[in-house]
Amino acid sequence: MVIAKTVDGEIGIMPQHAPVLGVLVEGGVLRVKREGEGDLVAAVHGGFISVADNEVSVLAEVAELGSEVDVAAARDALDRAQASIEANQEDADAAIEAKRARARLRAAGEEV
Amino acid sequence: MGAQLRLLRRRINSVKSTAKITRAQELIASSRIVRAQQRMQAALPYEREITRAVTGVVSNAASVDHPLTVAKENPAQAGVLIVTSDSGFCGGFNANVLREAEALRGLLESRGLTVLPFVTGRKGVTWHTFRQREMGGSWVGFSRKPAYADAKEIATTLIDSFKEENGIDEIHIVSTEFVSMLTQNVVVKRVLPLEVEETEATEATAIPPYFEFEPTAGDVLESLLPRYVESRIFTALLQSAASEEAARRRAMKSATDNANELMRVLTQQMNQARQAEITQEISEIVGGANALADAAAGKE
Predict the structure, then answer these.
(1) What pLDDT digit, counting tens, does each position of A60-105 carry?
(2) Are the Cβ atoms of A22 and B213 closer than 8 angstroms?
């Protein structure tokens, strides 16, 4: 089962799902539940999920597997982004930066 | 005679050092092709999927009217993205692309459109500035190793111009397609507006008859199309990078071969000159000795 977050909300895809094409949110966490193994978790920033012929493809502009996330760097990025948000409320770049950092931390299994 | 010998020796040395440079360039290019090819391969799945997704949306939601899909009724200006290389030493690589771009310009102008070139690669930019052609945009510095961010920047410029009221109405790409190490073709593609092809659905390319969209087909298309254009441009840049190295390898290989051949001919000439010099010296000595002997015989 694949769980992803589209702009409409979370979507869970089971085998034999009808064809879907969805827009993913910035800073989402994608989870692939696998039988017999642990979940495959990835931080996905923007992009699409497409389901067709029992095949799920995720097209992301930037993606990172949870196991590959540098937690310290992500936390650092989050702190910096939050600092610049506090300094300037309308800093859109920092807001996206914070979202991405949070997604990376969540994908790595950290509490945010 | 001595002077000619020295001249030949100097030429051989100069050809030899040129051959060293071209040989080194050839080897560098060969190793870069492999990497460029790998990068090309790595980008393939993304491009395939995004093309599939766009095809899915467009063929399922024929009612969707998006400014990026609809051909304007009276197109006035066409944008042509010309992908060239930053550095030379690659034979006819850039000349081929620019010739094709000129042919496209002629074709578009015969349809009554004005052409606005967008150029990547130092060679193409110089070509256009030398002819004082107006450019809609130019990018240099990444022809050997294009990053996705570069493609994104180009795509943003093109799409912004496309959306403008008096901007461009069509987007074409002229670039070099990498077929194999030996074959690279210059190709012209129209990216926008999308070309709708009526094809027979085969097993492999079949698109499911219906698609659900999250949230709506229009929204999906809105964010999908820029990504699609980016991906097309990125692929063109990667293919062009691989082709550039392949063209450079071939050009440098023939330059090295020519230098070796030249060296062989020059060495032969040099040996001939040396031999002639020795022969002359011998005949001078013999002649001198004979003259001395004659003089001595005359005295007695």
Answers:
(1) 877 878 777 777 787 788 888 777 777 776 667 777 777 778 777 7
(2) yes
B144-201 tens-digit pLDDT: 888 888 888 888 888 888 887 778 888 899 989 888 888 888 888 888 777 665 555 4
Q: What is the ipTM of this complex?
A: 0.71
Given a contact cutoff of 8 angstroms between Cβ atoms, the answer to whether B22 and B255 are in contact is: yes
pTM equals: 0.81
Contacts of B219 in chain A (CB under 8 A): 7, 23
Overall fold of domain B2-23+253-291: Helix Hairpins (1.10.287)
DSSP string, B203-269: TTTPPPS--EEES-HHHHHHHHHHHHHHHHHHHHHHHHHHHHHHHHHHHHHHHHHHHHHHHHHHHHH
**Å from A64 to nearest chain B CA?**
15
Look up the CATH number of domain B27-251: 3.40.1380.10
Domain assignment of residue A72, given as a range: 68-107
C-beta atoms of A57 and B213 within 8 A: no
* In a shared domain, residues A27 and A46: yes
Asked whether residue A34 falls in the same domain as residue A82, the answer is no
Q: Where are the domains of chain B?
A: 2-23+253-291, 27-251
**SS3 call for B66:** coil
Chain B hits for A47, Cβ within 8 Å? 227
